[in-house]
Amino acid sequence: MIQVERTDGLMRVVIDRQDKANALTREMLAGIAEAARDAARDHAGAFVLTGAGKVFSAGADLDEARAGLATDPVWEELSGAIAALPCLTVAALNGTLAGGAFGMALACDIRLAAPGAKFFYPVMKLGFLPQPSDPGRLAALVGPARAKMILMGGARVPAEEALAWGLVDRIVPEGGLDAAVEAITADALGAKPGHAAAIKAMIG
């Protein structure tokens, strides 16, 4: 359900549970976190996270969420592992991003989105708190009021609005995500070790 591909310094992680809208189990979350730690150990030049099919991820698997996954520290471990990566990190959002899946995308340096993607995080409706680092990262991108619209007001944000808000950095034409990822990671993959980390440290 998690595919990890390594090619010339690029680590590409694909969420592939299409029959369940790529809903995330604890095992899948742990697998993505391990891939991020592997990317750090292997000195990957870029780390890309995407989904298979038409949805990036619907968030937590509902059965596991009710059984405790919604409050499991594995979400924070995952987003922390991605945020700590010294290489360029890209969320290639092939479709809708929902719920707890926000955390891993917010932890990435860059977010690319397919035209039909939608973004929502219904923690208020479901009675859960967001993962601890998500509100701060979200507010840093879109501002406090818009973060509250998403987390408290149940806003469902289409790709065009997400771009205007700063939630995503670019909308990629249909079918163009792979080419966009290749273009945006090319310089990082060609750089000497440590160069991306130095620039990230300067940006903060």
Main sheet characteristics: 6 strands, mixed
Record the strand order, biggest sheet: 1-2-3-5-7-10
Question: SSE order, as H and E?
Answer: EEHEEHHEEHEEHHHEHEHH
- Strand pairing plus helix content: what structural class? alpha/beta
Number of strands: 10
Instruction: Using the CA coordinates, give the radius of gyration.
Output: 16 Å
Pick out the low-confidence regions: none
Number of helices: 10
At the fold tier of CATH, the topology name is: 2-enoyl-CoA Hydratase, Chain A, domain 1
Mean pLDDT: 96
Domain module tally: 1
The second-level CATH architecture is Alpha-Beta Complex
Large-scale geometry: globular
> What is the CA–CA distance across the termini?
33 Å
Helix proportion of residues, in percent? 40-55%
Question: Beta fraction of the residues?
Answer: 15-25%
CATH class: Alpha Beta
The CATH superfamily bears the name 2-enoyl-CoA Hydratase, Chain A, domain 1
How would you portray this structure in words?
The chain has 10 helices and 10 strands. It has 204 residues and is α/β, with parallel strands linked by helices. It has one domain: 2-enoyl-CoA Hydratase, Chain A, domain 1 (Alpha-Beta Complex). α6 packs across α7. The longest helix is centred in the N-terminal third of the chain and has 16 residues. The model has no long low-confidence stretch (mean pLDDT 96).
